[in-house]
């Protein structure tokens, strides 16, 4: 039995009108990880419905998903995955040829795809790995929870900062690069990387956002690193905080009964 699956002090000692509320609070304490991971799953997987809805002709629900998640992701199509079409990813030039309003970032964000090209995912590739990593590593934490709590292990804040730093640097460098205009920034050409590596990789590896390019690999890798760090730093912290609170309540109740 998991340590948090036992009857909590809140539910054990609650009496009278407060008992139902205390039981609900105790249930949430015991199952908070399951609830959070479930919520992360819904949040992470919903954008995958957008291309499916568009493919089925359900444009209203599909565009609703795009609209909701546009507040949490830039959804630029050259950095997104496409489904039910000819290719998995498209270059900026290919998207510009298909979408006339591609001169600005706001304009190109509105492109969701066509029947021939397919329909883009509601997440960019970075958000797939970042939010998807939350869900994935949340499931891992559930599987390893007992072992982690017994060992007392938790990712230190130093490792947290170290593993989150790459996504910050990558994201900020893209933001600065995009100030030069779509397709013009130093992260679009990555000429600096080509020089550093003596052009050992194909041109598309450097000057592209497509699948397998330097940019796409870095976005996927940094998103996974950050989500791993945040889950295995925060979840054990919350678990131990709840356990400490339960122990404190139990000790307080015990002292009250002894001196009552």
Produce a short descriptive summary:
The protein is mostly helical and 260 residues long. The chain has helices at residues 9-13, 19-45, 49-55, 59-69, 92-98, 105-109, 125-151, 157-178, 186-189, 191-196, 203-206, 214-259; strands at 80-83, 113-114, 118-124. Strands 1-3-2 form a three-stranded antiparallel sheet.
Fold topology:
Layout: H1 9-13, H2 19-45, H3 49-55, H4 59-69, E1 80-83, H5 92-98, H6 105-109, E2 113-114, E3 118-124, H7 125-151, H8 157-178, H9 186-189, H10 191-196, H11 203-206, H12 214-259
Antiparallel strand pairs: 1-3, 2-3
Helix pairs in contact: 2-7, 3-4, 7-12, 8-12
What does this structure look like?
- The protein is mainly alpha-helical and 260 residues long.
- The protein has helices spanning 9-13, 19-45, 49-55, 59-69, 92-98, 105-109, 125-151, 157-178, 186-189, 191-196, 203-206, 214-259, and strands spanning 80-83, 113-114, 118-124.
- It has a 3-stranded antiparallel β-sheet.
- β2 (113-114) and β3 form a beta hairpin.
- α2 packs across α7 (125-151).
- The two termini are 32 Å apart.
- 30% of the residues are buried.
């Amino acid at each position: 039995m998991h340590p948090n699956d036992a009857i909590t002090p809140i539910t054990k000692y609650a009496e009278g009108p407060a008992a139902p509320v205390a039981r609900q609070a105790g249930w949430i304490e015991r199952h908070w990880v399951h609830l959070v991971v479930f919520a992360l799953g819904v949040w992470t997987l919903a954008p995958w419905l957008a291309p499916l809805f568009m493919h089925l002709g359900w444009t209203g629900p599909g565009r609703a998903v795009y609209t909701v998640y546009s507040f949490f992701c830039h959804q630029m199509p050259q950095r997104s995955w496409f489904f039910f079409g000819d290719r998995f990813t498209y270059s900026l030039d290919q998207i510009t040829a298909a979408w006339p309003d591609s001169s600005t970032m706001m304009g190109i964000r509105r492109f969701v795809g066509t029947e021939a090209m397919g329909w883009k995912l509601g997440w960019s590739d970075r958000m797939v790995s970042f939010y998807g990593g939350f869900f994935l590593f949340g499931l891992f934490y559930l599987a390893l929870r007992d072992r982690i709590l017994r060992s007392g292990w938790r990712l230190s804040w130093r490792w947290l900062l170290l593993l989150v730093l790459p996504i910050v640097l990558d994201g900020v460098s893209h933001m600065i690069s995009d100030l030069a205009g779509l397709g013009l920034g130093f992260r679009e050409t990555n000429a600096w990387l080509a020089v550093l590596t003596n052009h050992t990789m194909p041109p598309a590896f450097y000057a592209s956002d497509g699948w397998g390019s330097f940019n796409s690999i870095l976005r996927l890798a940094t998103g996974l690193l950050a989500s791993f760090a945040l889950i295995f730093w925060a979840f054990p912290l919350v678990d131990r905080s709840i356990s400490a609170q339960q122990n404190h309540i139990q000790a307080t109740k015990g002292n009250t009964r002894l001196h009552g």
